[in-house]
Protein backbone atom coordinates (compact mmCIF):
# COMPACT_ATOMS: atom_id res chain seq x y z
CA UNK A 1 0.00 0.00 0.00
CA UNK A 2 1.34 3.44 -0.88
CA UNK A 3 1.91 6.01 1.81
CA UNK A 4 -0.49 8.96 2.07
CA UNK A 5 2.20 11.19 0.54
CA UNK A 6 2.56 8.89 -2.45
CA UNK A 7 -1.19 8.67 -2.80
CA UNK A 8 -1.58 12.47 -2.87
CA UNK A 9 1.33 12.76 -5.31
CA UNK A 10 -0.32 10.26 -7.63
CA UNK A 11 -3.55 12.26 -7.61
CA UNK A 12 -1.62 15.47 -8.30
CA UNK A 13 0.25 13.90 -11.23
CA UNK A 14 -3.00 12.52 -12.63
CA UNK A 15 -4.63 15.95 -12.39
CA UNK A 16 -1.62 17.65 -13.98
CA UNK A 17 -1.62 15.22 -16.90
CA UNK A 18 -5.36 15.81 -17.40
CA UNK A 19 -4.88 19.57 -17.51
CA UNK A 20 -1.69 19.52 -19.58
CA UNK A 21 -2.81 16.94 -22.15
CA UNK A 22 -3.75 18.24 -25.61
CA UNK A 23 -7.44 19.17 -25.87
CA UNK A 24 -9.17 16.93 -28.37
CA UNK A 25 -12.43 18.03 -29.96
CA UNK A 26 -15.56 17.25 -27.96
CA UNK A 27 -13.69 15.55 -25.12
CA UNK A 28 -12.96 16.90 -21.66
CA UNK A 29 -11.77 16.03 -18.15
CA UNK A 30 -12.77 18.17 -15.17
CA UNK A 31 -11.12 18.18 -11.75
CA UNK A 32 -13.28 19.28 -8.81
CA UNK A 33 -13.54 19.01 -5.04
CA UNK A 34 -15.09 20.03 -1.73
CA UNK A 35 -13.54 20.79 1.66
CA UNK A 36 -15.90 20.97 4.65
CA UNK A 37 -15.21 21.20 8.40
CA UNK A 38 -16.31 22.94 11.58
CA UNK A 39 -16.84 22.86 15.33
CA UNK A 40 -19.30 20.26 16.70
CA UNK A 41 -20.85 19.94 20.17
CA UNK A 42 -22.80 16.90 21.37
CA UNK A 43 -24.43 16.54 24.77
CA UNK A 44 -23.54 12.88 25.32
CA UNK A 45 -20.96 10.69 23.59
CA UNK A 46 -20.11 7.04 24.08
CA UNK A 47 -18.95 4.24 21.77
CA UNK A 48 -21.42 2.17 19.77
CA UNK A 49 -22.48 -0.81 21.88
CA UNK A 50 -20.91 0.57 25.07
CA UNK A 51 -22.80 0.72 28.37
CA UNK A 52 -20.47 3.36 29.83
CA UNK A 53 -22.16 6.66 30.65
CA UNK A 54 -21.23 9.29 28.12
CA UNK A 55 -20.16 12.90 28.58
CA UNK A 56 -20.60 16.03 26.50
CA UNK A 57 -17.93 16.69 23.89
CA UNK A 58 -16.65 19.56 21.76
CA UNK A 59 -14.63 18.54 18.73
CA UNK A 60 -13.72 19.39 15.17
CA UNK A 61 -15.97 17.62 12.68
CA UNK A 62 -15.77 17.16 8.92
CA UNK A 63 -17.98 15.92 6.08
CA UNK A 64 -20.84 17.77 7.79
CA UNK A 65 -22.77 19.50 5.00
CA UNK A 66 -20.75 18.01 2.16
CA UNK A 67 -18.39 15.05 2.06
CA UNK A 68 -14.76 16.05 1.50
CA UNK A 69 -13.64 14.90 -1.93
CA UNK A 70 -11.29 15.27 -4.87
CA UNK A 71 -12.75 14.06 -8.14
CA UNK A 72 -12.33 13.78 -11.89
CA UNK A 73 -15.15 13.64 -14.44
CA UNK A 74 -14.59 12.91 -18.09
CA UNK A 75 -16.65 12.73 -21.28
CA UNK A 76 -15.90 11.83 -24.90
CA UNK A 77 -18.30 12.37 -27.78
CA UNK A 78 -18.55 9.07 -29.69
CA UNK A 79 -20.95 10.43 -32.29
CA UNK A 80 -24.62 9.80 -32.88
CA UNK A 81 -25.53 11.43 -29.56
CA UNK A 82 -23.59 8.88 -27.50
CA UNK A 83 -20.97 9.89 -24.95
CA UNK A 84 -18.44 7.87 -23.00
CA UNK A 85 -18.36 9.03 -19.36
CA UNK A 86 -16.35 8.31 -16.25
CA UNK A 87 -16.10 9.55 -12.66
CA UNK A 88 -13.29 8.96 -10.16
CA UNK A 89 -13.99 10.52 -6.76
CA UNK A 90 -11.73 10.18 -3.73
CA UNK A 91 -12.93 10.81 -0.18
CA UNK A 92 -10.50 12.05 2.45
CA UNK A 93 -10.33 13.10 6.09
CA UNK A 94 -9.70 16.85 6.11
CA UNK A 95 -8.62 16.82 9.76
CA UNK A 96 -5.86 14.24 9.31
CA UNK A 97 -5.21 14.22 5.56
CA UNK A 98 -5.78 10.46 5.36
CA UNK A 99 -8.02 8.50 3.00
CA UNK A 100 -11.69 8.19 3.92
CA UNK A 101 -11.44 4.39 3.75
CA UNK A 102 -8.22 2.39 4.00
CA UNK A 103 -7.01 0.84 0.73
CA UNK A 104 -9.68 2.70 -1.25
CA UNK A 105 -8.21 5.39 -3.49
CA UNK A 106 -11.50 6.41 -5.09
CA UNK A 107 -13.88 5.38 -2.32
CA UNK A 108 -16.73 7.78 -3.05
CA UNK A 109 -17.34 6.86 -6.69
CA UNK A 110 -15.46 5.05 -9.44
CA UNK A 111 -17.36 4.15 -12.61
CA UNK A 112 -17.31 4.23 -16.40
CA UNK A 113 -20.11 3.96 -18.93
CA UNK A 114 -22.09 5.25 -21.88
CA UNK A 115 -24.87 7.84 -22.05
CA UNK A 116 -27.30 8.85 -24.77
CA UNK A 117 -30.06 11.46 -24.49
CA UNK A 118 -32.53 9.12 -26.21
CA UNK A 119 -31.64 5.80 -24.53
CA UNK A 120 -30.33 6.70 -21.08
CA UNK A 121 -27.15 6.00 -19.14
CA UNK A 122 -25.46 2.68 -18.26
CA UNK A 123 -22.47 2.69 -15.92
CA UNK A 124 -20.32 0.08 -14.13
CA UNK A 125 -18.22 0.38 -10.97
CA UNK A 126 -18.63 1.66 -7.40
CA UNK A 127 -21.81 3.75 -7.38
CA UNK A 128 -24.90 4.91 -5.53
CA UNK A 129 -27.98 2.72 -5.79
CA UNK A 130 -30.95 3.70 -7.96
CA UNK A 131 -32.98 3.85 -4.73
CA UNK A 132 -30.81 6.64 -3.32
CA UNK A 133 -30.19 8.50 -6.60
CA UNK A 134 -33.88 9.04 -7.35
CA UNK A 135 -35.47 9.18 -3.87
CA UNK A 136 -32.63 10.81 -1.90
CA UNK A 137 -32.99 14.36 -3.34
CA UNK A 138 -36.52 14.54 -1.88
CA UNK A 139 -35.40 13.16 1.49
CA UNK A 140 -34.20 14.96 4.63
CA UNK A 141 -30.53 15.49 3.82
CA UNK A 142 -30.77 18.11 1.06
CA UNK A 143 -31.34 20.95 3.53
CA UNK A 144 -30.65 19.35 6.94
CA UNK A 145 -27.48 17.40 5.97
CA UNK A 146 -26.96 13.71 6.59
CA UNK A 147 -24.60 14.30 9.52
CA UNK A 148 -27.39 15.96 11.55
CA UNK A 149 -30.57 15.53 9.53
CA UNK A 150 -30.66 11.96 8.20
CA UNK A 151 -33.46 9.98 9.79
CA UNK A 152 -32.27 8.32 13.03
CA UNK A 153 -29.08 6.38 12.28
CA UNK A 154 -29.81 6.85 8.54
CA UNK A 155 -32.00 3.77 8.95
CA UNK A 156 -33.45 4.22 5.44
CA UNK A 157 -30.19 4.97 3.57
CA UNK A 158 -31.37 8.32 2.20
CA UNK A 159 -27.95 9.89 2.83
CA UNK A 160 -24.93 9.63 0.52
CA UNK A 161 -22.86 7.46 2.89
CA UNK A 162 -23.43 4.15 1.10
CA UNK A 163 -22.17 3.14 -2.30
CA UNK A 164 -22.18 -0.33 -3.79
CA UNK A 165 -19.13 -2.07 -5.25
CA UNK A 166 -19.22 -4.06 -8.52
CA UNK A 167 -22.51 -2.49 -9.60
CA UNK A 168 -24.29 -1.90 -12.89
CA UNK A 169 -26.66 1.09 -12.93
CA UNK A 170 -29.12 2.10 -15.65
CA UNK A 171 -31.01 5.41 -15.64
CA UNK A 172 -33.53 6.30 -18.33
CA UNK A 173 -34.06 9.70 -19.92
CA UNK A 174 -36.95 11.73 -18.52
CA UNK A 175 -40.12 10.89 -20.48
CA UNK A 176 -42.94 13.34 -19.79
CA UNK A 177 -41.34 13.99 -16.41
CA UNK A 178 -40.89 10.28 -15.53
CA UNK A 179 -37.45 8.74 -14.93
CA UNK A 180 -36.77 5.10 -14.04
CA UNK A 181 -33.58 3.46 -12.83
CA UNK A 182 -32.31 0.05 -11.82
CA UNK A 183 -29.06 -1.23 -10.31
CA UNK A 184 -27.61 -4.67 -9.66
CA UNK A 185 -24.44 -5.96 -8.06
CA UNK A 186 -23.54 -9.66 -8.25
CA UNK A 187 -22.28 -11.17 -5.02
CA UNK A 188 -19.25 -12.87 -6.58
CA UNK A 189 -19.78 -15.85 -4.25
CA UNK A 190 -18.99 -19.11 -6.12
CA UNK A 191 -22.03 -21.34 -6.49
CA UNK A 192 -24.60 -18.68 -5.59
CA UNK A 193 -26.21 -15.82 -7.52
CA UNK A 194 -27.88 -14.21 -4.51
CA UNK A 195 -25.39 -14.38 -1.61
CA UNK A 196 -23.58 -11.06 -1.28
CA UNK A 197 -25.62 -9.50 -4.07
CA UNK A 198 -27.71 -6.34 -4.03
CA UNK A 199 -30.33 -4.82 -6.29
CA UNK A 200 -32.35 -1.65 -6.44
CA UNK A 201 -35.14 -0.08 -8.53
CA UNK A 202 -36.70 3.37 -8.43
CA UNK A 203 -38.82 5.83 -10.36
CA UNK A 204 -39.29 9.58 -10.13
CA UNK A 205 -41.84 11.99 -11.56
CA UNK A 206 -41.09 15.71 -11.75
CA UNK A 207 -43.37 18.39 -13.18
CA UNK A 208 -43.19 22.06 -12.26
CA UNK A 209 -43.28 22.49 -8.48
CA UNK A 210 -44.09 18.81 -7.80
CA UNK A 211 -41.67 15.92 -7.43
CA UNK A 212 -42.55 12.35 -6.41
CA UNK A 213 -40.17 9.39 -6.09
CA UNK A 214 -40.33 5.79 -4.90
CA UNK A 215 -37.67 3.11 -4.62
CA UNK A 216 -36.72 -0.26 -3.21
CA UNK A 217 -33.32 -1.79 -2.44
CA UNK A 218 -32.16 -5.13 -1.05
CA UNK A 219 -28.77 -6.24 0.28
CA UNK A 220 -28.06 -9.95 0.74
CA UNK A 221 -25.49 -11.21 3.23
CA UNK A 222 -22.60 -13.10 1.60
CA UNK A 223 -22.49 -15.48 4.59
CA UNK A 224 -24.89 -18.39 4.21
CA UNK A 225 -27.91 -18.08 6.48
CA UNK A 226 -26.76 -14.88 8.19
CA UNK A 227 -23.85 -14.38 10.58
CA UNK A 228 -21.19 -11.70 10.21
CA UNK A 229 -21.34 -9.89 6.88
CA UNK A 230 -18.53 -11.45 4.86
CA UNK A 231 -15.65 -9.99 2.91
CA UNK A 232 -17.50 -10.59 -0.36
CA UNK A 233 -20.22 -8.15 0.67
CA UNK A 234 -20.82 -5.56 -2.06
CA UNK A 235 -21.59 -2.84 0.44
CA UNK A 236 -19.85 0.26 1.68
CA UNK A 237 -16.13 -0.22 2.25
CA UNK A 238 -15.74 -2.68 5.08
CA UNK A 239 -19.27 -2.38 6.43
CA UNK A 240 -22.99 -2.62 5.92
CA UNK A 241 -25.77 -0.03 5.69
CA UNK A 242 -27.45 1.32 8.76
CA UNK A 243 -25.12 0.17 11.59
CA UNK A 244 -26.11 2.44 14.50
CA UNK A 245 -27.63 2.34 17.97
CA UNK A 246 -30.93 1.43 16.25
CA UNK A 247 -29.65 -1.66 14.46
CA UNK A 248 -26.52 -2.76 16.32
CA UNK A 249 -28.29 -5.92 17.49
CA UNK A 250 -29.30 -6.88 13.95
CA UNK A 251 -25.86 -6.88 12.30
CA UNK A 252 -26.12 -10.61 11.59
CA UNK A 253 -29.18 -10.20 9.35
CA UNK A 254 -29.30 -12.48 6.31
CA UNK A 255 -30.71 -9.58 4.28
CA UNK A 256 -31.80 -5.96 4.51
CA UNK A 257 -34.63 -4.47 2.45
CA UNK A 258 -35.82 -0.88 2.18
CA UNK A 259 -38.81 0.74 0.52
CA UNK A 260 -39.22 4.53 0.47
CA UNK A 261 -41.57 7.12 -0.99
CA UNK A 262 -40.87 10.88 -0.98
CA UNK A 263 -42.76 13.94 -2.21
CA UNK A 264 -41.49 17.49 -2.69
CA UNK A 265 -43.58 20.58 -3.48
CA UNK A 266 -42.46 24.19 -4.07
CA UNK A 267 -45.13 26.68 -2.99
CA UNK A 268 -43.06 29.54 -4.39
CA UNK A 269 -39.47 30.47 -5.21
CA UNK A 270 -38.91 30.88 -1.45
CA UNK A 271 -40.88 28.06 0.19
CA UNK A 272 -40.84 24.31 -0.38
CA UNK A 273 -41.70 21.24 1.67
CA UNK A 274 -40.80 17.56 1.40
CA UNK A 275 -42.37 14.53 3.09
CA UNK A 276 -40.98 10.99 3.12
CA UNK A 277 -41.95 7.52 4.36
CA UNK A 278 -39.78 4.42 4.58
CA UNK A 279 -40.13 0.80 5.62
CA UNK A 280 -36.91 -1.04 6.55
CA UNK A 281 -36.64 -4.77 7.20
CA UNK A 282 -33.76 -6.68 8.82
CA UNK A 283 -34.38 -10.30 7.82
CA UNK A 284 -32.83 -13.13 9.90
CA UNK A 285 -31.33 -16.36 8.58
CA UNK A 286 -30.16 -19.61 10.13
CA UNK A 287 -26.92 -18.02 11.31
CA UNK A 288 -28.41 -14.77 12.65
CA UNK A 289 -28.21 -13.81 16.32
CA UNK A 290 -31.90 -12.81 16.32
CA UNK A 291 -34.90 -14.84 15.23
CA UNK A 292 -37.71 -12.42 14.29
CA UNK A 293 -37.72 -9.96 11.41
CA UNK A 294 -37.05 -6.42 12.68
CA UNK A 295 -39.09 -3.71 10.93
CA UNK A 296 -38.60 0.05 11.21
CA UNK A 297 -41.12 2.57 9.83
CA UNK A 298 -40.11 6.22 9.48
CA UNK A 299 -42.08 9.35 8.56
CA UNK A 300 -40.29 12.68 8.11
CA UNK A 301 -40.91 16.21 6.84
CA UNK A 302 -38.66 19.17 5.96
CA UNK A 303 -39.71 22.81 5.47
CA UNK A 304 -37.23 24.98 3.57
CA UNK A 305 -37.29 28.80 3.27
CA UNK A 306 -34.98 30.82 1.03
CA UNK A 307 -34.81 34.01 3.07
CA UNK A 308 -32.58 35.85 0.57
CA UNK A 309 -30.57 34.96 -2.51
CA UNK A 310 -27.70 33.97 -0.21
CA UNK A 311 -29.48 32.71 2.92
CA UNK A 312 -31.43 29.48 3.51
CA UNK A 313 -33.33 28.23 6.57
CA UNK A 314 -34.77 24.75 7.13
CA UNK A 315 -36.58 22.80 9.84
CA UNK A 316 -37.28 19.08 10.03
CA UNK A 317 -39.03 16.45 12.10
CA UNK A 318 -39.01 12.67 11.86
CA UNK A 319 -40.24 9.72 13.88
CA UNK A 320 -38.95 6.16 13.55
CA UNK A 321 -40.85 3.27 15.12
CA UNK A 322 -39.73 -0.35 15.36
CA UNK A 323 -42.06 -3.31 15.68
CA UNK A 324 -42.23 -5.60 18.71
CA UNK A 325 -40.06 -8.67 18.08
CA UNK A 326 -37.22 -10.72 19.56
CA UNK A 327 -38.60 -10.64 23.14
CA UNK A 328 -38.86 -6.84 23.12
CA UNK A 329 -41.90 -5.81 25.17
CA UNK A 330 -41.77 -2.07 24.39
CA UNK A 331 -40.84 -1.31 20.78
CA UNK A 332 -38.21 1.35 20.16
CA UNK A 333 -39.20 4.81 18.95
CA UNK A 334 -36.98 7.73 17.94
CA UNK A 335 -38.19 11.33 17.55
CA UNK A 336 -35.83 13.83 15.94
CA UNK A 337 -35.96 17.62 15.45
CA UNK A 338 -33.56 19.58 13.23
CA UNK A 339 -32.77 23.17 12.29
CA UNK A 340 -30.33 24.39 9.63
CA UNK A 341 -29.13 27.87 8.67
CA UNK A 342 -26.75 28.58 5.79
CA UNK A 343 -25.30 31.69 4.16
CA UNK A 344 -23.41 31.73 0.86
CA UNK A 345 -20.46 34.09 1.06
CA UNK A 346 -19.83 33.46 -2.64
CA UNK A 347 -20.75 30.97 -5.34
CA UNK A 348 -18.25 28.53 -3.80
CA UNK A 349 -18.04 29.25 -0.08
CA UNK A 350 -20.81 28.74 2.51
CA UNK A 351 -21.04 29.30 6.24
CA UNK A 352 -23.66 27.26 8.08
CA UNK A 353 -25.01 26.23 11.48
CA UNK A 354 -26.92 23.08 12.44
CA UNK A 355 -28.87 21.94 15.49
CA UNK A 356 -30.41 18.55 16.25
CA UNK A 357 -32.23 16.88 19.12
CA UNK A 358 -33.40 13.30 19.43
CA UNK A 359 -35.40 11.44 22.08
CA UNK A 360 -35.50 7.63 22.15
CA UNK A 361 -38.15 5.46 23.81
CA UNK A 362 -38.66 1.72 24.33
CA UNK A 363 -36.22 -1.13 23.82
CA UNK A 364 -33.96 -2.61 21.17
CA UNK A 365 -31.34 -5.37 20.91
CA UNK A 366 -27.77 -4.85 22.06
CA UNK A 367 -24.63 -5.98 20.26
CA UNK A 368 -25.00 -9.67 21.10
CA UNK A 369 -28.44 -9.85 19.45
CA UNK A 370 -30.83 -12.51 20.74
CA UNK A 371 -31.75 -12.16 24.40
CA UNK A 372 -29.79 -8.93 24.89
CA UNK A 373 -32.67 -6.47 25.26
CA UNK A 374 -31.52 -2.96 26.21
CA UNK A 375 -33.05 0.51 26.44
CA UNK A 376 -33.06 2.38 23.15
CA UNK A 377 -30.53 5.23 23.06
CA UNK A 378 -30.45 8.35 20.89
CA UNK A 379 -28.25 8.87 17.82
CA UNK A 380 -28.85 12.02 15.77
CA UNK A 381 -28.66 11.71 11.98
CA UNK A 382 -25.75 9.55 10.83
CA UNK A 383 -22.82 11.71 11.97
CA UNK A 384 -23.00 10.19 15.45
CA UNK A 385 -23.50 6.52 14.54
CA UNK A 386 -20.14 5.51 16.02
CA UNK A 387 -20.59 7.83 19.02
CA UNK A 388 -24.25 7.74 20.07
CA UNK A 389 -25.70 8.98 23.34
CA UNK A 390 -25.48 6.76 26.41
CA UNK A 391 -28.99 7.89 27.37
CA UNK A 392 -32.37 8.33 25.72
CA UNK A 393 -31.65 11.95 24.70
CA UNK A 394 -29.03 13.67 22.61
CA UNK A 395 -28.50 17.29 21.53
CA UNK A 396 -25.90 18.43 19.03
CA UNK A 397 -25.00 21.60 17.18
CA UNK A 398 -22.31 22.77 14.76
CA UNK A 399 -20.95 25.83 13.03
CA UNK A 400 -18.83 25.19 9.95
CA UNK A 401 -17.67 26.24 6.50
CA UNK A 402 -17.84 24.44 3.15
CA UNK A 403 -15.85 25.38 0.04
CA UNK A 404 -16.18 24.01 -3.48
CA UNK A 405 -13.50 24.17 -6.16
Automatic annotation (TrEMBL):
<keyword id="KW-0472">Membrane</keyword>
<dbReference type="Pfam" id="PF13609">
    <property type="entry name" value="Porin_4"/>
</dbReference>
<dbReference type="InterPro" id="IPR033900">
    <property type="entry name" value="Gram_neg_porin_domain"/>
</dbReference>
<dbReference type="InterPro" id="IPR001702">
    <property type="entry name" value="Porin_Gram-ve"/>
</dbReference>
<keyword id="KW-1134">Transmembrane beta strand</keyword>
<keyword id="KW-0813">Transport</keyword>
<keyword id="KW-0732">Signal</keyword>
<dbReference type="InterPro" id="IPR023614">
    <property type="entry name" value="Porin_dom_sf"/>
</dbReference>
<keyword id="KW-0626">Porin</keyword>
<keyword id="KW-0998">Cell outer membrane</keyword>
<protein>
    <submittedName>
        <fullName>Porin</fullName>
    </submittedName>
</protein>
<keyword id="KW-0406">Ion transport</keyword>
<keyword id="KW-0812">Transmembrane</keyword>
<feature type="domain" description="Porin">
    <location>
        <begin position="18"/>
        <end position="353"/>
    </location>
</feature>
<comment type="subunit">
    <text>Homotrimer.</text>
</comment>
<dbReference type="InterPro" id="IPR002299">
    <property type="entry name" value="Porin_Neis"/>
</dbReference>
<feature type="signal peptide">
    <location>
        <begin position="1"/>
        <end position="25"/>
    </location>
</feature>
<dbReference type="InterPro" id="IPR050298">
    <property type="entry name" value="Gram-neg_bact_OMP"/>
</dbReference>
Amino acid sequence: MKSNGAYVSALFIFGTVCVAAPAFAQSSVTMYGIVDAGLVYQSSQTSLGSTVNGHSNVKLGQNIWNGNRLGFKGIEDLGGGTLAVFTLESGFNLLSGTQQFANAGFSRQAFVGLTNASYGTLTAGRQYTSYYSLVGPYGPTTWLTGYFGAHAGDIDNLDVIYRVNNSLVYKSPAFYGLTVSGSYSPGAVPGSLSRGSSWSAALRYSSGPLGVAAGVERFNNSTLGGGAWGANSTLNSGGQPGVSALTNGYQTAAAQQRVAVAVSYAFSAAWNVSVSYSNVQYIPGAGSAFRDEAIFNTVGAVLHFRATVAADLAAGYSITRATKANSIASAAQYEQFNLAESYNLSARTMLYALQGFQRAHGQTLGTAGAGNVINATATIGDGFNAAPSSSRSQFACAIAVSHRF
